[in-house]
Amino acid sequence: MTIGLSYILAAYWTVLVAELIGDKSIYTVASLSLRFRKALVLVGMAAAFGGKMLMAVLLGQVLVRVSTQWTAAASALVFFAAALFSWFKRPESVPARAADALRGPRATLVPFVLLLLTEWGDPGQMSAAALSAQSHLPLAVWLGGTSALMTKGVCAMTLGVKLRTRVPERTLRTLATLSCCVLGVLALHEALFH
After folding, report:
1. Cβ contacts of residue 163 below 8 Å, gap of 6+?
2. Is position 69 within any domain?
3. 98 located within any domain
4. How many distinct structural domains can be found in the chain?
5. What is the pLDDT of residues 138-189, one digit of tens each?
6. pLDDT of 37-67, one tens digit each?
């Protein structure tokens, strides 16, 4: 159980710091929370983020069928690519516009669709896929990754875009890059010595 918990925490941390860097969905969630009831945004956000992490974990499980050594090497490559992407990606400066306000349960579809259909293949998803392939614990990675996305979303709902003004972008970039590099080194070690 402690191994599963450590992968939940590893996925949570890595996905969270990767997602906080220049992520447009922070603006989308903040904008949506100003236009729709918070509960509807939360439900749509949970479904969208859960679906995105599910796809990342499923990709990781496809990679599991490959030799452990090759999977670990591919995981290391993905973690290092995510680290580079995190370090060099320029932040978004203009918030995305949300759809016009709707009422009732149909309003849940707006945040769901807006959040589900954007930003595929970002460092958070790439890291989750690699961690899923490396750990063979898809549920733990899904829980950690989805929890990280929801943390980001709830922070965006409560703090809006002020979140980035509280934590310097350079700090977030450094944390995301270091997290991905540490996981990359661990995956590379597994590829070379196991």
Report:
1. 20, 26, 155, 156
2. yes
3. no
4. 1
5. 999 999 999 999 998 888 888 755 655 576 777 777 877 787 788 788 878 8
6. 888 889 999 999 999 999 999 988 887 777 7
Range list of H helices, the chain = 2-19, 24-35, 38-64, 68-88, 109-116, 123-135, 138-159, 163-166, 169-193
Predicted TM-score (pTM) of this structure: 0.71
Range of the domain at 33: 2-93+104-193
Q: What DSSP string describes 26-82?
A: HHHHHHHHHHS-HHHHHHHHHHHHHHHHHHHHHHHHHHHTS-HHHHHHHHHHHHHHH
d(CA 25, CA 171): 19
* Residue 6 included in any domain: yes
